[in-house]
Amino acid sequence: MKKTLIYIIVAAVLVGLAAYKIAGNKEKQKTEVAEVAKQVDKINVNVVTVKRENINTDYSANGTFLPKQEMNQSSEIAGRIVNVMVKEGSRVSAGQVLATIKKDAIEVDVAQAQNNLQNAVIDNQRYENAFKTGGVTKQQVDNSRLQLKNAQAAVKAQGVRVNDASIRAGISGTINKKMVEPGTVVSIGTSMFEIVNINSLKLSVLVDESQIGRIQLGQEVPINVNVLPEDSFSGRITFIAPKSDASLNFPVEIEVQNKGNLKAGMYATALFKTNHGAETQNMLTVPAEAFVNGVSSGQLFIVENGTAKLVKVTIGKIYGDKVQILSGLNDGQQVITSGQINLDNGSKINIVK
């Protein structure tokens, strides 16, 4: 009987504890639900604090070096190569003979042209003398004169062929590639040598449309070469394209005098010094991403008593991802930079960062 009573008491205690715990859990759940309910109507946003700063307007652009001059030296006549006087890496001057083409057949044609010229001279002289005495007509004399001129032209043409049998460098520079050897048969226009002049080089870069108005022809530009970090280089802007490409970038060329260690094809960075001094000092700025519907709208949200307030500001110049604020904001105010698409004027917000 006593055991039964004890069991009943223990069971009642357990039931009571279980009921108490369930009641406590319900109260905790109610509290959590209420807290979540408070947060549901808040929109998560990121913010930045407005502050004054000095803007660095220097602009850098990457590109590769190109030779100031380069050309493929080709043959102007057909024939077989008999001599090649240079090799890859050889320094050559404009007009220097690089190779010669067999000209035996050309010399035969030269001799024939000279013989024809000699005959034409004799015939013309005979007709000229005969015309003085009335032995030939004016038309016959004119024909003899024309034949003489044609014979003279033929001799000159063969002389050009003889000269063309010697392949001469069109520019001064270095033989970058040699495509022929003695015995090679070439046709008119066959590429024989690639010549590059790297006494000075051109650094070709693309400059964004927002920066193109800040550079000018003749401007000196510091240049960093990736593979030559210990050396310093500078160049002068020699070309600014009058038209942008499809990406609104403008091709710009910077001429650099080669100290001997630069090579065409090297990768480099040009640093355009565009700092405007006091004009870019102590400026009130905000990120461009803070604006609603783009910077041109001049509208953004600020934080005010836990809500988002839409304000209109007057913008100044744009420096990359920074926008100058002339009026409408104060130093220290918080501006919302993300989540604006979900906001209305007066929306409750939850600052994530």
TrEMBL record:
Origin: domain of life: Bacteria
Domain CusB-like beta-barrel intervals: 204-274
Keyword hit for rRNA-binding: no
Domain Multidrug resistance protein MdtA-like barrel-sandwich hybrid residue range list: 75-196
Domain (YknX-like C-terminal permuted SH3-like) ranges: 284-350
One Gene Ontology term, aspect cellular component: efflux pump complex
Coiled coil: 103-130
GO molecular function: efflux transmembrane transporter activity
Annotated ranges, domain Multidrug resistance protein MdtA-like alpha-helical hairpin: 107-166
UniProt keyword terms in alphabetical order: Coiled coil
Family label: Belongs to the membrane fusion protein (MFP) (TC 8.A.1) family.
PANTHER family named among the record's database cross-references: HLYD FAMILY OF SECRETION PROTEINS, MULTIDRUG RESISTANCE PROTEIN MDTA
Family matches, as NCBIfam families: RND_mfp (TIGR01730)
Protein name as annotated: RND family efflux transporter, MFP subunit
Organism whose genome encodes this protein: Chryseobacterium polytrichastri
